[in-house]
Amino acid sequence: MAAGKDLEIGEGQEKKKKLIIIIGAVVLLAIVAVVAVLMMSGDPAEPVAAEAGAAETAVAADPNASADKGSALYVSMPRPFIFNVPGASKDRLVQIKVQLLVRGSNNEETAKVHIPLIESTLLRTFSTSNAEELITVEGKENLKKKALKEVQEALVGVAGSEVVEEVLFTGFVMQ
Prior knowledge:
- By secondary structure, this protein is of the alpha+beta class.
- It has helices at residues 2-41, 45-61, 105-113, 115-126, 131-135, 137-159, and strands at 72-76, 81-85, 92-103, 164-174.
- The chain has a domain at 72-174: Band 7 domain (Tetrahydropterin Synthase, Chain A), CATH 3.30.479.30.
- It comes from Rheinheimera tangshanensis.
């Protein structure tokens, strides 16, 4: 009988030790997690506010500075451009899907507001090309540069700034 009690007491103390070790480990992990979160988050509010104020001042001084500042955003044209181009032996049908690279949410909103103007300008620019030009990589690059220049000129006239940084062809098919 006495041997049975010693065995029960030994098992009970061993369970208590395991329980204390597990609780200690959980508390230690919680403390480490809290310290890690505090170290990673820090207190960046003041430097970020100072940088934002400097950026707003720069944009106010130069309206075109918004094209240099801000994150890259993409504005999709709602439909692909489909048009005919003359070729040496026959006319070709071309389909181009376009997205516009803009910087900052202000330019994104401005581009979205003026999508009809942008579409008209791009279609006019695309339709002046010919099949021989569009077959080559250089011809496509030249068309993109010409399209960018035309879109920027059109937007300067109505929005007061270039707004668009780059015209991207995301799909190009010629038949």
